[in-house]
Write a structure and sequence with these properties.
The protein has 326 residues and is α/β, with parallel strands linked by helices. It has 2 domains: 4-172 and 216-242, NAD(P)-binding Rossmann-like Domain (Rossmann fold); 175-213 and 245-282 and 299-325, UDP-galactose 4-epimerase, domain 1 (Alpha-Beta Complex). The chain has helices at residues 12-25, 54-64, 77-82, 84-107, 143-162, 188-198, 217-229, 250-260, 273-278, 287-293, 301-311, 319-323, and strands spanning 4-7, 30-34, 45-48, 68-71, 113-119, 166-171, 173-175, 202-204, 212-216, 241-242, 246-248, 266-268. The chain has a 7-stranded parallel sheet with strand order 3-2-1-4-5-6-10, with helices on both faces. A 3-stranded mixed sheet has the order 7-9-11. Strand 1 (4-7), helix 1 and strand 2 (30-34) form a beta-alpha-beta unit. The longest helix is centred in the first third of the chain and has 24 residues, at 84-107. The protein starts with a strand and ends with a helix. The site of serine (SER) has 11 residues, from loops.
């Protein structure tokens, strides 16, 4: 029986992953954890954890006899630029604490499988932008991307040196409606739906033709759980897997929204996030994920737009959280 700890359970991925894991393993076996005093999404089991506290992590792992950890607590690309040292500390020390926990528990005969998210932000301006290969130039320019690249190397190091069963995905921009966006460069593709449903013209902080790799949340959750469920001997990548969903730019997304809401209007006011987006790939080659664990994206832009327009709840997300230049 698996006992699963999800750290960052109140965040964008965590809020949906907890439910998916509860459906698979039983709600009693999924321990949602976050730094805030309560679960924002009514998790059945909830613990307050600061991922920077190694002692607290060890105590919770022992209390619940945890067998899997998803370490999702992080500062994203745009907010990271406002507080680079804080982003570095949270993103790196948080991961190191989990890898050390897994090493120590593994050596005590209590193996811990780890999931940690990397990102398209680990690539940079000299990375080939089209169909970006798994192995290529990686020269990230944001503190977030630098922490992701370093984190990937740490994951592989702990696997090679200590046998820690750590697994990771380089997520594209994730689009979802359950939680508010959390300071990412790809978040225009969420904010745009909120403006569209308010009947407002959307002021896009990226230029119209800025193509980025994206993925809709149900595909992202399926990828994550498939990777964690794959047999260890099938996995050839212990840094982080390229995983593709779909690619589009703001103009293309706006056109599909307009097909559904004919009065929708967008205008462009690029800010500091444009330079970040311009340094990232436009599409990813995920052949190794397909081969190793059968990855295949399912959701196209038409489905994504219809589902977002149906499900975005305007009341959940203050306008300031969506439009603020981070
Ligand atoms: N969605 C993230 C961001 O924009 C990328 O991992 O920061």
């Amino acid at each position: 029986m698996e006992r699963i700890l999800v750290i960052g359970a109140n965040g964008q991925i965590g809020s949906e992953l907890v439910d998916a894991l509860a459906a698979q393993h039983g709600a009693d076996n999924v321990i949602a954890a976050d730094i805030s005093p309560r679960s924002l999404y009514a998790a059945k089991v909830y613990e307050v954890i600061d991922v920077l506290s190694a002692d607290r992590l060890a105590a919770v792992a022992e209390q619940y006899q945890i067998t899997q950890v998803y370490q999702l607590a992080a500062l994203l690309s745009a907010t990271g630029e406002q507080a680079p040292l804080k982003a570095w500390t949270l993103n790196m020390d948080g991961l190191l604490n989990i890898l050390e926990l897994a090493r120590i528990r593994g050596e005590a005969g209590k193996p811990l499988k780890v999931f940690w998210p990397s990102s398209i932000a680990a690539f940079g301006p000299n990375t080939p932008a089209q169909n970006t290969p798994q192995f290529t130039i990686m020269d990230p320019t944001t503190i977030y991307g630098i922490s992701k690249l370093a984190g990937e190397r740490l994951c592989e190091y702990y696997f090679q040196k200590y046998g820690v069963d750590v697994r990771s995905i380089r997520y594209p921009g994730i689009i979802s409606y359950k939680s508010p966006p959390g300071g990412g460069t790809t978040d225009y593709a969420i904010a745009i739906f909120h403006a569209a449903l308010r009947g407002e013209s959307y002021s896009c902080f990226l230029e119209a033709d800025t193509t980025l790799p994206m993925i809709y949340m149900p595909d992202a959750i399926r990828a994550t759980i498939s990777l964690m469920d794959a047999p260890a001997d099938k996995l050839s990548i212990r840094s982080s897997y390229n995983v593709a969903g779909l690619s589009f730019n703001p103009r293309q997304l706006a056109q599909v929204i307009e097909q559904n809401l004919p009065d929708f209007d967008i205008h462009y006011a690029p800010d500091s996030r444009q330079a970040i987006a311009a340094s990232w790939p436009q599409s990813l080659d995920d052949e190794i994920a397909r081969r190793d664990w059968g990855w295949q994206a399912q959701i196209d832009i038409q489905h994504l737009v219809k589902d977002m327009l149906k499900n975005v709840k305007l009341s959940q997300t203050p306008e300031s959280a969506l439009t603020k230049a981070a």
